Every structure is written in structure tokens, then in C-alpha cells.
Amino acid sequence: MNKVIGLRDVREEIRSGDTIVIGGGGLVRKPMALVEEVIRAGIRDLTVVSVLGGPDVDLLLGAGRVKKLFYAYVGFDFGGPGPNFRRAREENKAEFIEGSEFILISALEAGARGISFMPVRSGLGSDLLRVNSNLQKFVSPFGGEKLVAVKAIRPDVALLHVNSADPTGYGQILGDWFLDPLCAQAAKKTIMSAEKIVDTETIEQRFADTAIVKLWTSKVVEAPGGAGFTSCYPDYPADFVRLKEYLGHARSAETFNAYVEKNAAGQERRVS
Amino acid sequence: MDYTLKELMVVAAAREICDGEVVFVGMRLPLLGFAVAKELHAPRAVGIFENGVIRDWPALAPIFTMSDPPNVSRSLSCCGLVDVMSLLQSGRVDLGFIGGAEIDRFGNLNTHWVEENGRRVRLPGSGGAADIAGLAGRCIIIMNHERRRFPPKVRFITSPGYGEGRGWREGKHLKGGGPRRVITSLGIFSFDSESREMILSSFHPGVSIEQIQRETGWRLKVAAEVSETRSPLAEELAAVRKYDPKGVWTNN
């Protein structure tokens, strides 16, 4: 089955109001081409799940497309917190549900396993338990240990970017996988962009690099440079010049609106 | 002094790592500390990065994110976050490095929000810090020492230290051992084994205890045997500079 679609067709796969989970982490392998297409397509009121958010989440927040955000972190590593994230958070432009990395991971694991919650030890002693009602303390039926139940998250769509994919939906990642396989397993459907589309035999030759299995994949998009300005090892590193430009545009809501109008709305993506 | 303050802090971090330990490595100073420990006294320590990278040896070229090519190339495994978080929860991580915007006298850390001029300023959030603080065998905290960052009680406990003191972690059913040391830009602190309060154990060269008190938001407890922080040895400095030859992370 050929699952390849064009970048413009992605808008047919996501609806306003959907829950989306985004792969990659921080400044690494963020599916920026797909995220920008979501913005161009006018999709809004999204619930976004991001364990380690970077420019993907910051851009969606800055463009006003997020109704609710589940997150452990939104920032640019040494570049500090996401400027749009900070504004949106301080001005309550969306609902923010805070967790730690392991808490968010566990919510997705529960979703991936089709079960209502995941037991963890994370969150004990942290005020996260106070502010996040998706976390509930309970007593283990086996030995009585005090644990935290993390409510499952089952996103409608996962957005991922990989090094290569075949038309049937196998995806290979050559650097760290972060949570991409988990995102794909938890979501009802997965849209995966790839630096390049290869034939299935090429996937077979390097099967150990296969992170995404076709059973999880709904659509495949060829998008060279599709993670830019974040990195996609070994194809390209993070582009700190474009990162700096982005942070410049994001310094105020007004300048960022102008930037979104110019770059994300309207035209096709500039391929780096 | 023939070294920078940050070099001193890196060396102090390195001295906390024992040979053979599994270390949850952060970025910047702890990462360099791990490199120095590997070079000198802890050649069998293993470094784990949040993104899933596991390395026996630190990358030689400077990295700005954990997934920069020098960190990924020649790593032993890129296994993914689920795996490294599971190592943490199952008690296989000896030591974790964390930091925060605020720390209080019981070593609780806040990375959620602070107040500046009466306005609530939002920070990036926990990341993995709350997990590490709760679950690692012990934690080393690295902080810039400023009064606004050292309130008597943090506004929000992102990463739990000793909460309200003695017995608190046990009451919260926390398995990890909690903070062992706080390495600041002015000195090094331990925690009282009874009260669990932070105690000044050493002040950096050129820094006075009065100065540290001024930059601390509560009445400082000082160890009876308080002394000056040991200066880096030549071999320690050589190791720092091998991994940070241009001073990207360690120039003041």
C-alpha cells in the first residue's frame, strides 16, 4: 500500500480540535515542515502533547493554534524558554497541564498499551501532583507501595520526522529515537515526514535502524530539510543562525505575528 | 588564580562522581565534570543522557544539545527516553545532576515560575529534573548563588529535595536518596544528616562567609569544619581544558 502524500495533503489528515503528539525533542528532529503545514492549513484548537517541546510547540503557541498543552518542558536548550510559550503561559492563552518527562512518557505508554493509566514513582514529593489532576496517588495492590497513577493520553495524530521512510510506512532514524516509536504507538494515526523516501529493500538492508513500523503509519511525506532549523543527525545539525532569527521574531507577539503571516501562512515551505 | 570560577565548579562536580557509577549527565558544567571524572578517577563511570544516549566516554568536541553529532557519533547506544527513565525508576542510576531557578534551605528546586517585580515569570518546566530528583540514588545540584535564587522556601517544588526537613522524603515515599551536595558560584553545601538543612561546607577562594550569607535568603548554617574549597589540581585543570579548549562553558 502506497501511503505517500504531498505536504499540502497533510491538512486532510488533521482536524481542528484534534489531539496531536509531536516527536523529536528540544532542538532535535522536530517535524517542522508538518507543523508549519498545520499552521498554513488553518487548523486550530489543538490539544498538543509534547514531552520535550522546542520550536514546534513554541510556533504553534505563537500562532494561536493550541487550546491545551501537556508538557514537561518547552524551551530551546541553552537558548532559554520558548518566548511564545512564556507569553502564552503568562497570559493564560491556553490550558497548560504540567508534568515531568517520565510522567508524560507514562501517559503515552498507557495510551500505547490501551490501558487507562500507568503506575509510576515520579511526581511523589513534587508540586506537579498538586496542579495536575491527571496524576493520582494510589496504593499498589501488590505490597502496598504508594505510587502515582498517570492518566493515559491517546492522541488522534502523531507527527514525526525521520531520516528515511518507504512508501508503506516503515521509518528509519539514524540518531537518537527520542520517543518517536512511542508517539506512533500511542496515536490513532501517524503522519511521518522523511528526509527521503526509499524503497522497501533499502529499509531491509538496515533493519536495525527501523524505528517506526508500518502498522502505526497512516501517511508518509517526503520533506528534505523537514526538521530544520532543528537537527536531523546525520543529515544536518541544528541551524543556530535560523534559531537566532526565530528568537528575534518571537521577541514580541506583534513581530511574531508578522513572521507567521510571512513564512508559515501563504507559501510553500522554504526547503533548507 | 590560574583558573576560572566555572573551572572550579566543574572540578567540584567531577569529584562527586565515583568510579563505576551510573551518572545521569546534564549539559554544560555537569557534562564537563563527567568528562574530568572519566579522565582521572572514575574511568569506569557510565554517562546517561536524557535523550537516550549512553556513553562510556564523553564527546571530545563541544556540544550544545545532547543530540549534537559529537555526542551521538560513537555513543554505545541511542536507546531512547523510555529506557533511560526506566533505569532511573528501577534504581539503577547512582547519581544525577540537576539545577533550577530557585533553591531553598532543604534543597527543593523550582523550575516552574518565579516572580520578578511582582510579575509571574514562567520557566520551561521540569523536563527530567523532577524524575531525577525523586529517583536517582543521590543528586548534585549546581546553582548560581544569588539571593533571589535562594529563598527560604521555593514557590513551587518542581524537583523535591528534603521538603520540610527530617523525615519528609520518607513520608512522601521517595525512593531516591535526595540532594547530597549543592555546588554554587560561591561555595559548596552539604545537608545535615538530622535536620536535612543545607550546610555550608566550603567557600570558594576569595569569597567570604559573610558574602555567602548576604546572597542567601535564610540564616546560613555553617559546618564546624568549614574551609576554603580545594583549588583544582593541575591534572584536573588539564582535563577540563582538554574537553573545553576554547572555554565555551568555563570562561567567566
Provide the fold topology.
The complex is a heterodimer of chains A (272) and B (252).
Chain A: E1 4-5, E2 19-22, H1 32-40, E3 46-53, H2 55-62, E4 66-74, H3 83-90, E5 95-98, H4 101-112, E6 117-120, H5 128-131, E7 135-139, E8 146-151, E9 157-165, E10 171-172, H6 180-186, E11 189-197, H7 200-205, E12 210-212, E13 217-222, H8 240-249, H9 253-264
Helix pairs in contact in A: 1-2, 2-3, 4-6
Chain B: H1 5-15, E1 22-24, H2 29-39, E2 46-48, E3 53-55, H3 69-72, E4 77-78, H4 81-89, E5 95-98, E6 102-103, E7 109-110, E8 113-116, E9 119-122, H5 129-135, E10 138-143, H6 168-171, E11 179-184, E12 187-191, E13 198-203, H7 209-214, E14 221-228, H8 234-243
Parallel strand pairs in B: 1-2, 1-5, 5-10, 10-11, 13-14
Antiparallel strand pairs in B: 2-3, 3-4, 6-7, 8-9, 11-12, 12-13
What is this entry, summarized?
The complex is a heterodimer of chains A (272) and B (252). Chain A is α/β, with parallel strands linked by helices and 272 residues long.
Percent strand of chain A equals 25-35%
Number of strands of chain A: 13
Helix content of chain B: 10-25%
CATH class call of the largest domain in chain A: Alpha Beta
Can you characterise this structure?
The complex is a heterodimer of chains A (272) and B (252). Chain A starts with a strand and ends in an 8-residue tail after the last helix. In chain A, 56% of the residues are buried. Chain A has 2 domains: 4-101 and 154-257, Glutaconate Coenzyme A-transferase (3-Layer(aba) Sandwich); 115-151, no CATH class. Chain A is of the alpha/beta class and 272 residues long. Chain A has 9 helices and 13 strands. In chain A, the strands form 2 sheets. In chain A, strands 1, 2, 3, 4, 5, 9, 10, 11, 12 and 13 form a 10-stranded mixed β-sheet that branches. Chain A has a 3-stranded antiparallel β-sheet with strand order 6-8-7, with helices on one face. In chain A, helix 1 (32-40) packs parallel to helix 2. Chain B is α/β, with parallel strands linked by helices. Chain B has a single domain, classed as Glutaconate Coenzyme A-transferase, CATH 3.40.1080. Chain B is 25% helix and 23% strand. In chain B, the strands form 3 sheets. Chain B has a 10-stranded mixed β-sheet with strand order 4-3-2-1-5-10-11-12-13-14, sandwiched between helices. Chain B has a two-stranded antiparallel sheet with strand order 6-7. Chains A and B meet through strand 4, helix 3 and helix 4 of A and helix 4, strand 9 and helix 5 of B.
